[in-house]
Amino acid sequence: MNKVPLLSCIALTLFLLANGAPTLPPPPTVLQYLLRDLIKVQDKLQNVSERMKKYELHIPSNTSSMADLQCFTKELTPVAGALKYESKAQTIQEYINNINETVNSLTGTETTQCHYATKMKIEGFFKEFVSFSQKLRALTQ
Ligand SMILES: *[C@@H]1O[C@H](CO)[C@@H](O)[C@H](O)[C@H]1NC(C)=O
Ligand SMILES: *[C@@H]1O[C@H](CO)[C@@H](O)[C@H](O)[C@H]1NC(C)=O
Ligand SMILES: *[C@@H]1O[C@H](CO)[C@@H](O)[C@H](O)[C@H]1NC(C)=O
């Protein structure tokens, strides 16, 4: 008996498990990952420059469904650029990328119509993002 094919089969399985399993966890679990990353960002925002703390973002209004999460992540592209200059909050960008990917996995590629009513400083924006995610998690549980 040749053991090599079996071993490579195990290796392939492990590879698939490690690199993005094809089945996604259920939405409440994914929302939990999202919240974990959002809270990390909130934590790290305490160490950003005064200039960055004054950075304002649009707050989505009338958000109700999962697809509306995109209305928050759409706002993050300029933020990710501005955060490049924050020496004390380097890893913040990695969390923002994670947040974006998590939201993309929940909403799919279909784009939603977004309405923005007000602007808030970055801290307020993340607070809104967290409370909307918590609301969705409660609704999906
Ligand atoms: C904020 O900066 C301080 C001092 O550099 C550091 O000890 C702390 O871990 C930082 N906090 C976060 C959340 O990165
Ligand atoms: C989020 O993902 C979308 C779709 O892949 C991409 O176009 C956008 O640039 C990403 N935004 C950030 C802040 O990474
Ligand atoms: C948001 O909802 C309120 C109340 O349902 C409505 O009056 C308002 O026009 C909506 N705003 C937008 C931008 O859709």
UniProtKB/TrEMBL annotation:
Q: Name one GO biological process term.
A: adaptive immune response
Compartments, record wording: Secreted
Q: Has the keyword Phosphoprotein been applied to this entry?
A: no
Which controlled-vocabulary keywords does the entry list?
Answer: Adaptive immunity, Cytokine, Disulfide bond, Growth factor, Immunity, Secreted, Signal
This protein is called Interleukin-2
Q: What's this protein's function? A: Cytokine produced by activated CD4-positive helper T-cells and to a lesser extend activated CD8-positive T-cells and natural killer (NK) cells that plays pivotal roles in the immune response and tolerance. Binds to a receptor complex composed of either the high-affinity trimeric IL-2R (IL2RA/CD25, IL2RB/CD122 and IL2RG/CD132) or the low-affinity dimeric IL-2R (IL2RB and IL2RG). Interaction with the receptor leads to oligomerization and conformation changes in the IL-2R subunits resulting in downstream signaling starting with phosphorylation of JAK1 and JAK3.
Endpoints of the signal sequence: 1-20
Say which species the protein is native to.
Answer: Vombatus ursinus
Q: Name one Pfam family in it.
A: IL2
| Gene Ontology molecular function, alphabetical | cytokine activity; growth factor activity; interleukin-2 receptor binding
Q: Which SMART domains match?
A: IL2
Q: Does the keyword Secreted apply?
A: yes
Q: Which family does it belong to?
A: Belongs to the IL-2 family.
| Source superkingdom | Eukaryota
